[in-house]
UniProtKB/TrEMBL annotation:
MF (Gene Ontology): ATP binding; ATP hydrolysis activity
Name of this chain's protein: NitT/TauT family transport system ATP-binding protein
Lineage per the UniProt record: Bacteria, Pseudomonadati, Pseudomonadota, Alphaproteobacteria, Hyphomicrobiales
Similarity comment: family membership: Belongs to the ABC transporter superfamily.
InterPro entries registered for this protein in UniProt: AAA+_ATPase (IPR003593), ABC_transporter-like_ATP-bd (IPR003439), ABC_transporter-like_CS (IPR017871), ABC_transporter_ATP-bind (IPR050166), P-loop_NTPase (IPR027417)
Location of the ABC transporter domain: 4-237
Cross-referenced SMART domains: AAA
Pfam family, one: ABC_tran
Keywords recorded for this protein, A-Z: ATP-binding, Nucleotide-binding, Transport
Organism, scientific name: Tepidamorphus gemmatus
Amino acid sequence: MKSLTLENLSKTYFDPYRGTQVTAVRDVSLNVEEGDFVAVVGPSGCGKSTILNMIAGFIPITSGRILVGGREVKGPGADRGVVFQSFALFPWKTVAENVTFGPKMRGVGKAERQRIAEEYLALAGLSHAADRYPNELSGGMQQRVGVVRALANNPDVLLMDEPFASVDAQTRMTLQEELTRIWEQRRPTIVFITHDVPEAVFLANTVVVLSKGQVLAEVDIPLERPRSWDRLVEDEAFKTLSNKVLQLVRSA
Ligand SMILES: Nc1ncnc2c1ncn2[C@@H]1O[C@H](COP(=O)(O)OP(=O)(O)OP(=O)(O)O)[C@@H](O)[C@H]1O
């Protein structure tokens, strides 16, 4: 795992309807320490996905720099793993084969792939589903496979764009608890994008609030770990922090 640094990052799109340039991200600087967990929130259109897509290397940056472990990155790379809300597991591959697809592409041998599958499926509580196919899994299980598939590539930074937005509320809370547990065990460097303020506060060490493409605030979340909804739902510090972030988002 490595640190992630954004230096004066900006992105301008050409809007074909208006025939003008639109600045989606303006001069964003951010430092995510190695092994840190940062959530990014903000109203629709504030530039969250644009920032994540630039970090992933999926879209070119207009100006500024992105550094992973102090080294400037340009374009996509296996050093940055990405988990989206809707992503495709390979339907013709089993869960274990999906998880080890990246290692296989990198030339990792069969025995080692077997070990990786066992390790990561156990991490996600999915050992029993190793030989199933994606269409035999619930939505929540598919999201779990997506998360460990990204982790099995051993990325320096894990980028997550609303990965739990499409599952029901109950499953979503379970996935959030599992992600914090996995983060505590493995300490991947995570940037997690979400609309959902309680989700951001529950998961992260720092919540970054974006407004109109700029960083409005960085809020520290010094809540104890391990975090569970049973405990935090009635926790005064959690409520106070969530309200603080919510007010910032509403003012954004
Ligand atoms: N390909 C594009 N071409 C032109 N404008 C774009 C493009 N992609 C995004 N934008 C504009 O850039 C701004 C930021 O969009 P972005 O999708 O990054 O916001 P967001 O915070 O992720 O929104 P949401 O929460 O709704 O997904 C918006 O004004 C959007 O309309």
